[in-house]
Write a structure and sequence with these properties.
51% helix, 7 strands, alpha/beta, Transposase_mutator, two-stranded antiparallel ribbon, DNA binding, 3 domains, elongated, transposable element, 393 residues
């Protein structure tokens, strides 16, 4: 028995697969023109088949150099398998978009495509391919939203954008949990520096797109953001992120006191209910206000919005009192953007963030956040919605 070298065997297998694909494509083409000639044409049409022409066509399984495409005498037949001047399946373009989404620069994608497939893709060509998603972005940013959202999380991340010079600019990100308990990214908005006015415009957009009934907004303590949120959603509650507040307090406490101070503070926001939490805070204040008057006063002033979550069902507390979910999302976005060093323009930033955001929404769809699908929780939320906004009809 003769052993076939592995590389020769692989070549034989590749050729066999390519030939099989060629045969199947040509069979489909023959059936297409047969249907066109016998069914789609009018009875009085004076048209006949007119042989074949050969063309090249790249598939994910290999290149076909002599694909036989049937034609008619009047030149009216057009196959639905590919466009007249399309020389490859959409798989390579899709691969380009996926690599770009993964954080590769246009130059890196071009080099990779050339080394793997021999296709000559310049960075400009790669950029043009990824630009096809811009229409999708515009439609996605304008898509209607659900009417009801139990929670809307707001957070920003900074990316380096190149205009005349490279500078960090904010990406405003809004994430919601709808009445079914599904989490989704509602929108992102690129450019400028984070401000309450910027967030006001974001919130206006969310409301204009249909998100009118919101129970609680969760975010950090950016000056003016609470006022902007209450202006757009006056019937909603505000929850300042406890994790952000703890982080802001941590550096201001002496090393010797950190463990005890933060341990006492934790007893406040892990209490059984809001009434107990306020009583625990009174004890915390009495113990620490002399040593750390500014820090204790800051917590006292923000206490009403830090303890908002106690108004809601206990199973949902963890998803309300912290914006960890949106921060994790931002962390992943930074990871995707980091290899690019700096983005050439806002369009480049929007493309990569959109591709990642739609991926997240697909992953999250149909998966209710823990506690939000509980029947009792839903009943409480339904009552809250009706009391604040009326029935959902």
């Amino acid at each position: 028995m003769t052993n076939v070298p592995q590389n020769a065997y692989n070549d034989l297998l590749d050729n066999a697969v390519t030939q099989l694909i060629k045969d199947k494509l040509e069979l489909l083409l023959r059936e297409e023109i047969k249907n066109f000639m016998e069914v789609e044409q009018s009875e009085n049409a004076r048209n006949f088949r007119n042989g074949y022409y050969e063309r090249t066509y790249d598939t994910r399984y290999g290149k076909i150099d002599d694909l036989r495409v049937p034609r008619d005498r009047n030149g009216e037949f057009h196959t639905q398998l590919f466009e007249p001047y399309q020389r490859r399946e959409g798989w390579l373009e899709e691969a380009v978009i996926q690599m770009y989404k993964g954080g590769m620069s246009t130059r890196e994608v071009a080099k990779f495509i050339e080394s793997m497939y021999g296709a000559q893709y310049s960075p400009t060509t790669v950029s043009n391919i990824t630009r096809t998603v811009m229409e999708d972005i515009e439609a996605w940013q304008k898509r209607p939203l659900e009417r009801r959202y139990s929670v809307i999380d707001l957070d920003g991340l900074y990316v380096k954008l190149r205009r005349n010079t490279v500078s960090s600019e904010v990406v405003y990100l809004a994430m919601g949990i709808d009445e079914k308990g599904y989490r989704q990214i509602l929108g992102f908005y690129v450019g400028g520096h984070e401000s309450s006015n910027g967030w006001r415009e974001v919130l206006k957009d969310l409301k204009q797109r249909g998100a009118t009934d919101v129970l609680v907004g969760a975010f950090d303590g950016l000056p003016g953001l609470e006022e902007a949120f209450r202006e757009i959603y006056p019937k909603a509650d505000v929850q300042h992120c406890i994790v952000h507040k703890v982080r802001a307090t941590f550096p201001k406490i002496r090393v010797a006191d950190k463990t005890e101070f933060l341990g006492d503070l934790k007893l406040v926001y892990t209490a059984l209910d809001g009434e107990v939490a306020r009583a625990v805070f009174d004890g915390f204040k009495a113990k620490w206000s002399k040593q750390y008057p500014k820090e204790v006063k800051s917590w006292e002033e923000q206490l009403p919005t830090l303890l908002t979550f106690y108004k809601y069902p206990q199973l949902t507390w963890a998803a309300i009192y912290t914006t960890n979910a949106i921060e994790r999302t931002n962390k992943e976005l930074r990871k995707r953007l980091r290899p690019m060093n700096s983005l050439t323009n806002i369009e480049a930033a929007e493309k990569i963030i959109y591709l990642q955001a739609t991926d997240y929404n697909e992953q999250w769809y149909g998966r209710a956040i823990r506690g939000f699908s509980d029947p009792q929780t839903k009943a409480v939320f339904e009552k809250m919605y009706k009391e604040r906004y009326g029935s959902n009809e």
